Amino acid sequence: MKSHKDATPPANAEEQEPPEEDPDLKPKEYSFNPLEAGRNIIAGNFYFKKGNYRAAANRYLEATKWDPTSQEALLRLAEADEKLHNIAGAREAYTKYLTLEPPAKDAEVVKKKLEKLPEDPHKKK
Questions:
Q1: Residue 38 domain-assigned?
Q2: Of 22, 51, 106, 121, which is most buried, counting CB atoms within 10 Å of its CB?
């Protein structure tokens, strides 16, 4: 029979985190998945049409995590952020949209939208 002393780990052993018991609490890992991005864009479009811009923005943001090169997701995220008066978010999404290759057909229109955005009041000068 083993004694209690046998059960204690050596003093120099690193403490390991116990495995997460609830799989929903684990951080989500993203890999390139255009199909999942497309599903999120469709859901985002549904919320956008209903006027739920917060839910739409969250879905578009999720789509950009599955496919960071999705022009549609970035453009729609920028538009949703604009509706939410999230100027910094809209500016960031429009800027990323304009840096993607191949260049968007409506790049000039988006550049004008970007220029028309008001200055971010939270931005430090």
A1: yes
A2: 106
